[in-house]
Design brief:
Elements: E1 5-8, E2 11-14, E3 18-19, H1 31-44, E4 48-50, H2 68-78, E5 88-93, E6 95-98, E7 101-104, H3 108-122, E8 129-132, H4 141-153, E9 160-163, H5 167-177, E10 181-187, H6 196-205, E11 208-212, H7 218-221, H8 224-227, H9 229-238, H10 242-253, E12 257-259, H11 266-273, H12 282-288
Length: about 300
């Protein structure tokens, strides 16, 4: 199956991606079912898969540590019986974890070590897209951007993405990284609309906006329709799920948006990809513009 495509720098990727964090969210995560979800995504034409070195279950320090999710994703991809030539794997670095404690390290040494470790776990010569997970409040943002630029210069990574950033940080990154900067990954959903200005800036600069948590987060995903009445109303009128409407609404917001919903079940993947061809009317979009949640 072929999905509509969108730009990622010099690449084309599927208009909907796959957020792999849910594959290893808990120690009890069903690896076999998660593998089927990845295969369903590939069967449906998804070519963009997002992971991170620190994605892993609550008992992170006792069940494999760094790279748990990267390894699970790669194993699932390699067990598919089709070609992977068009698949783009994106990972992130810059977070640290010690059990339940998350912190940030945007220093040059950490980012280089993290990128090299991710490259080895993913089994790649060059990481297609390496994303800076979150700004480090203890150091100048320029320092982290210079470290990322050096990863490109040394052919450890091919392209750079930012995550959890504002407009000023994006502009600084463009200055330091140049054309190798291709994407921004921020939270965006019916619940979280604070990145609207960032979406417009990405369109202006030709950067892909990868929206994480497009259903409002893992806990809120199932209750999307009941929490956001306009999305439920449009979904009922169209005979589709509120989740499909949420993704179609994002795709209509800007041609630079690529939502990356998480999924651990094949059924969820198959539902999400239908949004790529769900065209909402102007009246429906206007109705959804006010659907910020009902108390």
């Amino acid at each position: 199956m072929s999905l509509p495509k969108r730009r990622l720098g010099d690449l084309e990727i599927s208009a909907i991606g796959f957020g792999s964090m849910t594959l290893t969210q808990t120690p009890e995560s069903d690896v076999e079912r998660g593998t089927r979800a990845v295969h369903a995504a590939l069967d449906a034409g998804i070519t963009f898969f997002d992971t991170a070195d620190v994605y892993g279950p609550t008992g992170f320090d006792t069940v494999g540590g760094y790279g748990v999710n990267e390894r699970a994703l790669v194993a699932a991809l390699r067990s598919w019986d089709g070609p992977l030539d068009d698949v783009v794997i994106a990972t992130k670095g810059g977070h640290t974890r010690d059990g339940l404690t998350w912190w940030i390290d945007g220093g040059r040494d950490h980012l280089r070590a993290a990128a090299l470790a991710s490259r080895e776990r993913l089994g790649l010569d060059v990481i297609p897209l390496y994303q800076h997970h979150r700004p480090d409040p203890r150091r100048p943002y320029r320092e982290s951007m210079e470290a990322l630029r050096s990863l490109v210069d040394d052919r450890i990574v091919a392209r750079i993405g930012l995550s959890n950033v504002d407009g000023d940080q994006i502009r600084l990154a463009v200055e330091v990284i140049g054309d190798a900067l291709v994407s921004v990954q921020n939270e965006y959903s019916p619940l979280a609309r604070g990145s609207e200005p960032v979406i417009d800036l990405c369109a202006e600069l030709g950067l892909t906006f990868l929206s994480w948590g497009p259903f409002g987060g893992m806990r809120e995903a199932k209750s999307l329709g009941s929490s956001f009445a306009p999305f439920a109303e449009v979904a009922e009128a169209r005979g589709v799920s509120p989740q499909q409407v949420a993704l179609a609404w994002q795709l209509a917001r800007s041609p630079w948006i690529v939502p990356i919903p998480g999924a651990s079940r094949p059924e969820s993947v198959r539902d999400s990809v239908q949004a790529a061809t769900l065209v909402l009317t102007e009246d429906e979009l206007a109705h959804l513009a006010g659907g910020r949640g009902q108390s």
